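Final report, section 2: Outcomes. Of the targets proposed, Protein SGT1 homolog is the one most frequently requested by collaborating groups, and we therefore present its record in full.
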Amino acid sequence: MAASDLESKAKEAFVDDDFELAAELYTQAIEAGPATADLYADRAQAHIKLGNYTEAVADANKAIELDPTMHKAYYRKGAACIKLEEYQTAKAALELGSSYASGDSRFTRLLKECEERIAEEANQAPVKTVEPPVAATVEDKEDVANMENTQPVVEPPSKPKYRHDFYNSATEVVLTIFAKGVPADCVVIDFGEQMLSVSIEIPGEEPYHFQPRLFSKIIPDKCKYQVLSTKVEIRLAKAEQVTWTTLDYSGRPKALPQKINTPAETAPRPSYPSSKSKKDWDKLEAEVKKEEKDEKLDGDAALNKFFRDIYKDADEDMRRAMMKSFVRIFSLLNAAPWTSYFRFTQLIESSLVLTTYPFFWACFCAG
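The predicted structure is given below as tokens.
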């Protein structure tokens, strides 16, 4: 069936209040091609009726991408964002859309509501003023009906095509969609204040749409994503440093503050009791020297100490003379074996030994 025929049937289903069928027929018309901005904008309207506000924002964004001057796409994006409580995003879309639809009272009224909600969030709600009613057009009534008295159609949850997981850091949430081998040009991701829209449409395969209302607000300009060979990695910049206990809001209470580990101040090193007492090494050295001086030795030890004291207390000239004599004695002793009694006796009787005997004997005993 041609795309034009599917579009006509979708509009008939919408008039008959069969919004689910209308959304399905618009999807078939988009797949049949060519996909136009009108098809996406009209499917966004059907999604609003079904209560699928994140899907409506995604379709409105696609319509704006194809036709940046389509004012009804901006209006429907703003209407869906208000339902998602993304008032800043809604305000930006409505202000831009009103520039392409001069004099359209729908934008004025919706902008006023958006500003009131923003003021309420800031606890600065302005005083409401009563304005005279403005006659509404047929299209105006149709779009207002999309926002009020909408009964969302509850559909049974279906198993997603791709598995996903996420983890927290202090400043961002990293979401991973395990889509293997997906071409980068088939992935479309949009970020809102508290909304994420992920669409993966591969020709010949069932499209994948993941559009949660996020647990907390994000900074869209700082968010980014990367399509890898085994996954799609999305980094959501947190507007507040809070811990996300889940990815989607789902009526959860306010998040607990993010615990940020800060380095503790340098604490003094603990001291432990010890059985060892501090020693005065200078005092100990003095005591040892005193004991050595006062020590009473006998025999060879006493003689050895006597000659060592002679050398220690001698002046430089005396020490040089003693060293010279010792070297000469040592060379003479080495000239003959120690067993040569005659040589040793002759050496003892010589005047050289007699003049250097004290030092020779001290060194001999020390050796």
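The two ends are 120 Å apart (CA to CA).
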